[in-house]
Amino acid sequence: MNILIQALLLIAVLLLLMILFFVNKYYIKTRSLMRYYENQGINNSYYFPLVGKYKRMLDSIKEHGDCMHYYKQLLTNQPDCKYTVTNLAHNVCIYFYDLELLNQLYKCSDLVKHQFGVEIFKQVMAGLVFNEGEEHSRKRKILSQAFHYQLLQNMIPQLSQIYEEFFEKIRNKRVSDCIMMGQEIVAESIVRLFFSNSFQGLKFKGKTMTEAVSGIIERVGSMAKSASYALFGKICFSFGQMASVKKDLKQIKEIYKEIITNRINSTNLEELQHKKQKDLIDYLIESKGISKIESEESITIDQIIEEFVTFQVAGLDSSGHTLGMVLYYLCIFPEKLVEEIEQTIKTPDDLNTESIKKMKYLGAFVNEVLRYYSVADQIFPRTCNKDIQIGDLIIKKGTQVNVGIIENHYNPKYFKDPHQFNPMRWLDGSLDKLNSYAFNPFSSGKHNCIGQHFAQLEIKVGIIKFLQEFDLELDQDYKFILKFSFLTEPLNPIPITFKSKKQ
Ligand code: HEM
């Protein structure tokens, strides 16, 4: 009996200690650090146990059908608000909006990306996004070749072909989830940008390679929001779901490696010089940017695979969601785009970078979708690796900082009537002197989006191709609610019928 009581007492003490540990870590310490920033003048402060900022999003969905409602209203109501402070689990995070402070933040070199909320994505993409310093600059220089003007120009026929292949599947049909379709299109375009047709027909566990990688991103996204990650952090990475994700990814990379190695070994440099449609691997082979040994100018095959996976993870969701949303906006905001397309693109050969540049309304429409929808409402949080000062604010080592991208897109100081979808605002001269931090969908500074020109090109080519081919019809009873997953996305999949214009 005595032993039983002693055991129960021991368990009770252990439980109490655990509760004290969690209360201290997740409440006392977090709140006291937040108060430190409130005392320095951050008036907009919001704490909620564990989920922090996400609670605001959940409330916004319930009350307004838009997870971003609160954030879109913030600067509309307080255009001069410089920053807010909130929490994510036990982490305190400051969001910056003031353009001068953003300038200082982007230049600050004492920020790292390896902390809570971010490290989980590092498990599946160890490339550019998470490289820092010298390594980052060196790889960024080499990989920028993927987005060289010439390569992007060469991509247009490839992109057209990808769209045409999809059109055969959807002609006169109702697609029940246009974001998913957007992701499939984008996934295919990233594969062809890097590797042309090298992966065609390849399967992993019965799925195409892009489906397999998309599945991995989805699994990691749901783990990032799980209670076990919020409570136990990195410890989760060695077990269960994450262990199986890592195993799958390792096998996928092995398959990629074999194909790329064979391709490099069988490339004839002379023939390559005359090849018309080159992909990134061709450019890297030509410039000796890829080799068995890593050097100042080159990366290894393993690294290029790592980068490919990183590009897929970074590009697939963001561009795929934007493409799906573009189709939605095309349905609800009937536009003059059809007219501009008909006037500019008369034959398939007219579709090139020059004609796309000439289509001013197309550019304005895409800008307006990037502003209004803002798929990336923020960047990956950065953690201060020492005490820093931004403006008058002294920020303690360990605090997370972030950029409020979407908040500024709804600031009336920069965008008149910000809650109105109005592409014309980009053409009436009012935004000619707009500060680039105010419209920042691809972020800024050294980690800005390397794929931004490619993303805009594939979306513009997509709009042209879709509107040339189809009349788009959104289900009449469709209800748009914006939720937050890894990125912002519609709660109800977007259903559109693609009626062929060639009856
Ligand atoms: C509409 C589409 C897209 C949007 C809105 C977008 C947005 C962003 C943002 C906000 C960042 C900064 C993230 C941070 O610093 O934490 C970023 C980085 C990045 N994006 Fe994109 N992106 C898009 C499409 C793409 C595409 C298509 C690719 C690849 C083909 C891509 C590849 C990358 C990479 C590799 C980085 C990391 C760059 C670095 O750290 O140097 N993105 N993107």
TrEMBL record:
Gene Ontology molecular function: any one: monooxygenase activity
Q: Origin, by domain of life? A: Eukaryota
Checking InterPro entries in the record gives: Cyt_P450, Cyt_P450_CS, Cyt_P450_E_grp-I, Cyt_P450_sf, Cytochrome_P450_Monoox
Needed co-factor(s): heme
Cite the entry's keywords alphabetically: Heme, Iron, Membrane, Metal-binding, Monooxygenase, Oxidoreductase, Transmembrane, Transmembrane helix
Q: Where does heme bind?
A: C449
Under Gene3D superfamilies, the record lists: Cytochrome P450
Question: Transmembrane ranges?
Answer: 6-27
Stated family: Belongs to the cytochrome P450 family.
User: What protein name does the entry list?
Assistant: Cytochrome P450 monooxygenase CYP5012A1
